[in-house]
């Protein structure tokens, strides 16, 4: 039997009498423990029983960056990185991107199932009538410097919403949780567009509730003197699809931040502000901007071979390629690539597209990339689309944050209703001094 077949047989319970447990011998004591295996995991607390003496604290597991630790049970997003599969509540991302709308997907994530027509109409209505923000939010925004980063402004203003809705801390009340969820999904584009207008030195535009969710966002971003902004339906649809693709991605860095902060039972605005902060970091939400910079630097087709050589020599990194979880084509990248055609039909082709496509072609056939299972990720083409929309690079991560909001909220809702969850409080391996005697400053050795 091959190793894979043996492992499969073991998980099917066909070997060793179907016993689903791990036998561990602690060589310090010679004691043997039987640790139950459930859903392919063992409980970290089971190791606490393994002690060398009665007053020993017991064994802990050490997992910096949680690379092999499940922190929750979740029924929101399924991800198989080896196979390149992504599903929200069981529905494949490809079908949702093709047949659904962002607000319908938001309903699915938050409520667990697709809405019927009446539920969808009510949901859309609720979100639409909550797009406005208190006038003082505008004043608050105006306090930022002229060159403030829009992600910093979004972070501050989402957190500030908790001061406008002090009742939001009543997180045990389902109706209360519901209204804050609606408010956050509804107001995120308004805050994002205000942040953009602020850096552009342009007047803030109020929401236009006659428009659909993405069209209203484009209106708040770009409306100038015209009485009514009329978004191109093809661009509106492309933006809707981008929001769908970013709506959730299971326990990533920002979702983990929302869950960790939410576990203190704080209000959802404060928890989501933590998610925005985590997303701001270049290792998380900022790669699409880096792809664009890389493509500009390559500049023309004849520079591609030397760039690829640079990547293989370790002097360069092919941004938008590779993923911690996906060891196959990121399914979102396939969909974005298709959306490029629709957007460029309206805006004209971004000249960098040709370079991106050639890079992809070479990389997918080159041994260096094939051996390391490096495929395009969600960010490889999204920057090109965002640029075609004339969004400045600083806004790219803000767009990600708008799309991710229902995912953050679905995860927060799941967390606060999960009886097994407590305040998130990891342990540590202490490496500092112990039991020192305090010496007054005047007597300390210089
Ligand atoms: N270009 C060239 N080589 C790469 C790349 C890349 N983009 N990504 C990984 N490699 C190589 C590494 O050098 C390493 O090679 P080695 O085994 O010879 O040392 C091997 O592939 C494995 O890479 P790791 O860095 O161990 O993979 P990890 O899972 O830690 O990193 C990451 C994943 C950070 C996404 C990485 O692939 C990367 O830096 N990609 C470029 C940045 C990017 O596009 N980030 C967006 C991710 S999607 C998102 O966050 C929304």
Question: Which helices and strands occur, and which strands form pairs?
Answer:
Elements: H1 3-11, E1 21-26, E2 31-38, E3 41-42, E4 77-80, E5 85-88, E6 91-92, H2 93-99, H3 102-111, H4 117-128, H5 135-142, H6 150-164, H7 174-200, H8 213-222, H9 233-246, H10 253-262, H11 268-280, H12 287-298, H13 304-312, H14 331-347, H15 352-365, H16 367-371, H17 379-388, H18 396-416
Antiparallel strand pairs: 1-2, 2-3, 4-5, 5-6
Helix pairs in contact: 2-9, 3-18, 4-7, 6-7, 6-11, 7-8, 7-18, 8-9, 9-14, 9-18, 10-11, 10-18, 11-18, 12-17, 14-17
Number of helices: 18
Biggest beta sheet attributes: 3 strands, antiparallel
Overall, the morphology is: globular
Rg from Cα:
25 Å
Concise overview:
The protein has 446 residues and is mainly α.
């Amino acid at each position: 039997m091959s190793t894979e077949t043996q492992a499969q047989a073991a998980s099917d319970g066909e070997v060793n009498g179907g016993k689903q447990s791990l036998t561990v011998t602690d060589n310090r004591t010679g004691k043997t423990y039987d640790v139950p295996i459930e859903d392919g995991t063992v409980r970290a607390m089971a190791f606490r029983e393994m002690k060398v003496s009665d007053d020993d604290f017991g064994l802990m597991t050490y997992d910096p960056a949680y690379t092999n630790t499940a922190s929750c049970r979740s029924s929101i997003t399924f991800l198989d990185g080896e196979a390149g599969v992504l599903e929200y509540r069981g529905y494949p991302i490809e079908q949702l991107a093709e047949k659904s709308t962002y607000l319908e997907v938001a309903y699915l994530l938050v409520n667990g199932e697709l809405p019927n027509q009446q539920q969808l109409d009510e949901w859309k209505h609720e979100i639409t009538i909550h797009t406005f923000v208190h006038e003082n939010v505008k004043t608050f925004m105006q306090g930022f410097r002229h060159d403030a980063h829009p992600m910093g402004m979004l972070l501050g203003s989402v957190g500030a919403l908790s001061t406008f809705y002090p009742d939001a801390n009543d997180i045990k009340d389902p109706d209360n949780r519901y209204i804050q969820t609606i408010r956050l999904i509804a107001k995120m584009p308004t805050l994002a567009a205000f942040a953009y207008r602020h850096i552009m030195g342009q007047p803030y535009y109020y929401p236009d509730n006659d428009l659909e969710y993405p069209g209203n966002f484009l209106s708040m971003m770009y409306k100038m003197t015209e009485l009514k902004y009329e978004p191109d339906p093809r661009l509106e649809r492309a933006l809707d699809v981008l929001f769908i693709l970013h709506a959730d991605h299971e326990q990533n860095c920002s979702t983990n931040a929302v869950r960790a902060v939410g576990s203190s039972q704080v209000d959802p605005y404060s928890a989501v502000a933590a998610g925005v902060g985590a997303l701001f970091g270049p290792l998380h939400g900022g790669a699409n901007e880096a792809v664009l910079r890389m493509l500009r630097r390559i500049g023309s087709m004849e520079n591609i071979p030397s760039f690829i050589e640079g990547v293989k020599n370790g002097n360069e990194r092919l941004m938008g390629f590779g993923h911690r979880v996906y060891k196959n084509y990121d399914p979102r990248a396939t969909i974005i690539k298709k959306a490029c055609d629709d957007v460029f039909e309206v805006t004209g082709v971004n000249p960098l597209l040709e370079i991106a496509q050639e890079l992809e072609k070479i990389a997918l056939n080159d041994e260096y990339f094939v051996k390391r299972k490096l495929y395009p990720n969600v960010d490889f083409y999204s920057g090109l689309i965002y640029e075609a929309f004339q969004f400045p690079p600083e806004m790219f991560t803000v767009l990600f944050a708008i799309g991710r909001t229902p995912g953050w909220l679905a995860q927060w809702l799941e967390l606060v209703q999960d009886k097994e969850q407590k305040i998130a409080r990891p342990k540590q391996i202490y490496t500092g001094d112990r039991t020192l005697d305090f010496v007054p400053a005047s007597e300390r050795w210089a």
